[in-house]
Amino acid sequence: MTSMTGLLGIIGSLPLARQGSFWFPPQASSVAAGTDLLYDIILWLCVAFFVAICGATALFVVKYRKRPGHKEEKTATHNLMMEVTWSVVPLALLMVVFGISMYWYLEMINPPKDEKVYDITVRGQKWVWSFKYDGDPFDGQMVTPTLHVIKDQPYRLVMDSPDVIHSMYLPAFRVKQDCVPGRYNKLWFRPTMAGEFPLYCTEYCGDDHSNMITTVIVHEDANSWRDAIIKEGDLKNKPPLERGQIIYERNCKTCHTVDGKKSTGPSFKGIWGKEEEMSDGSKVLVDEAYVRESLNEPGKRIVKGYPNSMTPFKFQDHEYEGIFAYLKSLKD
Amino acid sequence: MAGGVVEKPAGAYGGSTKNYLNETRGIKNWLITLDHKRIALMYLVAVTSALLLGGFFAIALRTVLWDGAVRDPQDLFLGLRIEQMYNRYFTLHGAVMVFLFIIPGIPASLGNFVLPMQLGAKDLALPRLNLMSLYLYWIGAIFFVGVLALGGLDTGWTLYPPYSLGRDTSIPLILALSAVFILGFSSILTGLNFIVTMHRLRPPGMGMYDMPLFLWALYATSLIQVLATPVIGLTLGLSLIEHVFHIGIFLPEYGGDPVLYQHFFWFYSHPAVYIMILPAMGVQSELIATFSRKHVFGYKAIGWSSIAIAVIGFIVWGHHMFVAGQSPAAGLIFSFLTFFVAIPSAIKVFNWVATMYKGSIELKTPMLYGLAFMYLFGIGGLTGLFLASIANNVHLHDTYFVIAHFHMVMVGSTLNAFFGGVHYWWPKMTGRMYNETLAKIACLLVFVGFNLAFMPQFVAGTRGMPRRYANYSDEFTIFHQWSTVGAYILGAGVLLQVIYLTHSWFKGARAPKNPWGAASLEWQSDSPPDFHNFTKPVVVMAAYDYENWEYDANTGGYELRKEVVETGRSIATVHN
Question: Are B382 and B413 in contact (CB under 8 A)?
């Protein structure tokens, strides 16, 4: 068993097709080469069986086609040896496939024990991703809409969702895990190639499911990684209006316009200080209190004529400050 | 034997002029009929309509996906954003195809017609229950039409909470849930009826091992229908309790767990996948044997592999939750078990190939579908191995690879076998032949269309194209465009079928009793059959005793040999 796993480990690290191939995106994580090899093994097994089945079918169709002078022959109606053979041989092959698959699956789910694994909290919500860096040097103080990681460093992601189920999919890493509300799912990976790769949502989550896309950026070194996170995640040092605008662009833009056009939610143009009619007929003044309530508990009071489909947000004080400033700026 | 045997004057084509179609007239006589043949025909019209409706949505969504990389997000179509439109299309496509076409498709239409006749019986054991199944189906279908009329649904056919059940429940959602519940009962009743019929109405001299393999497949299907379908009803019931009493079951806001719903849902829906494919495999066994004029090879292996698939189908549902947060140990166990489905499926395929050995293979339209089935099911089944392997599944889960795989199995194999079965039993059901040339062209279009539509999706999926996406990045454009072209070709093939089959219904040449030389008992009836199914005593024989029949140039079909008719006994020397 150890020799087999050792061999698989070596094969898995061969630099084959790292930049992507006809079938695959680039192999940018520690498990990609191994699972791709497994894919190829299954592919060739399938090709062999498929060619055999279709070849025999085609051969028989030609050879035994109905034609004058040709008559069917009686042959055995069963043959135990043959039937046992064509049941047991595929089963044995499949058990080998299962064994290899189990090896790589265990690699995928067990983060290394003898190394420091960096923790990132992932939140998938309609229809944005956010990544919070829990280890040094940010201690959970930085949140970015793209995922930044360093090459060859292991990461553990703790994932959840405040609204519906989402799924984080990194094709280049060959990993995927659902973000399920009410649960914390976990995922680990070790990127092995610097660059930018797409990150998709693969669990259907509503209107903008197909726009819930971001990028994972694999940095060569810790410095460029830290700078990039600060550049994206540090809003505190920006003036409130700019802060608000950035938050809007990242989180609200999909459903709320700023030009007065109706979208999934009401437009923000001129909404500040306005009295809006709610779905229950009551009237509410759009001010700090209502905006904050709408962010935290969006379903509580819905503006008339719009669906109850917004995801809840929790922000920090300086972020609310920015949001209010930005909404006020859209008054006219 | 059940049912009266009434002697009637023979008509010009060896059949009586009076048959089940013209026995009584008027819409009322059809609506209250207990005749399995009429019910089957009404099912056939209904499921074909559902197929066309589901196909319309397929064409619509493939059209949306033609240029999904260059979309303006502000584009509106009928007041909806393209994404919203697309989400409704794929939901309705899936729901209509699964619940209204592919689950009831073969059993309720072809099975209903053929099953009693293959037993030499007059009807199903419980004809009233059969009519009730049809009515439940209609009610479910009307509910789905209601969903459409009220603006559609965008939850996906799987209805995962909290997206579907968690929000304010809309009327279309309630209608859709009720429809699934009601259609479930239709399915349970049909299954129950089939099982009882196969046990109670076999004629003297016909054991279980003498039945055509189509019936073994229907038996396995019925087992699943009766045992698995109640679970979907329970799931919807639990969801209702949760909504009314706020007891946490599926929704996190009450302390429930959405993944629990997935377990319940797939505990039904995975076996339901075999409800879809098993009858198709049954049709395939009939087609291959008949058109090779060969006794089926490994009869018992094929029959029992149907039962094995049904049983194994109950213990693999967890492979739908490999990335949902199920424990890794459970994931590995479900992956391990899933591989075992491959074995009985492979056994069937090998047996079909072996059946053709040294046969006399006639490439009539039904056989062409049978050959296409080998190819398409080959791809569909084998690509299941990639998904059963959990390490690859993590990458391929919810991508176009999955879409391609299950379409190859469901559309490629099941729909293909449905077409094959319809072309095979059409002369019996309608008493008419169809235009063989057009039928072959349609078969070719369908085959080419399938391949073009779904083969590129395997590549797109492996390269990382997620499913249920209205938009996609430019690298996937080429795959989507091939796929869309394929869908149009497939659509053209289906339309051609509708045209020549409609023509055949009214104007087609009269069909002989047994145009293919098949040996199962339904071919001893006239085409179309008498109201009582058989006008002469049926000669009971095992399903693949082709020697009892010989070609008669006068009728253009096969007739029972004289000595068989005279003695009332099979002269065959080979038995199952």
Answer: no
Predicted confidence (pLDDT) per residue in B43-100, tens digit: 999 999 999 999 999 999 999 999 887 776 666 777 788 888 899 999 999 999 999 9
Q: Are residues A182 and A201 in the same domain?
A: yes
Closest partner residue to B397 (CB to CB) among A77, A176, A308 is A176
Check A105 against B331: CB less than 8 A apart. Answer: yes
A187 and A205 co-located in one domain: yes
Domain boundaries, chain B: 39-567
Of all residues in chain B, the one with the smallest CA distance to A108 is B391
Smallest CA–CA distance, residue B305 to chain A, in Å, is 11
Strand (E) or helix (H) holding A147: strand A147-150
Q: Which architecture characterizes domain B39-567 according to CATH?
A: Up-down Bundle (1.20)
Residue showing tokens 């806001």: B253
The tokens describing A5, both together, are: 């796993």
pLDDT surpasses 90 at A264 = no
CB B242 within 8 A of CB B256: yes
Specify the number of domains making up chain A. 3
Q: Cα–Cα distance between A267 and B269 in angstroms, integer? A: 41
Please tell me the predicted confidence (pLDDT) of residue A15: 47
Considering only CB atoms, A53 lies closest to which of B167, B340, B353, namely B353
pLDDT of amino acid B142: 95
Helix H, strand E, coil C: the string for B388-423 is HCHHHHHHHCCEHHHHHHHHHHHHHHHHHHHHHHHH
Instruction: Please name which of A175, A160, A119, A122 lies closest in space to residue A144, comparing C-alpha atoms.
Output: A122
Residues A193 and A229 in one domain: yes
Interface residue B413 vs chain A (CB under 8 A): no
Q: How far is B85 from chain A (nearest CA, A)?
A: 9
Q: Considering only alpha carbons, which residue of chain B is nearest residue A57?
A: B353
Are B194 and B107 in contact by the 8 Å Cβ rule? The answer is yes
pLDDT of residue B236: 87
> Is B395 an 8 Å CB contact of chain A?
yes
Extract the tokens encoding A99. 């064994």
- For chain B, the straight-line distance linking the first and the last C-alpha, in angstroms and rounded, comes to 22
Q: What is residue B168's predicted lDDT score, i.e. its pLDDT?
A: 62
Q: Is B102 on the interface with A (CB under 8 A)?
A: no
* Closest by Cβ to A50, choosing from B378, B389, B463: B378
Residues of B in contact with A71 (CB under 8 A): 360
Q: Which residue of A has its CA nearest to B370?
A: A57
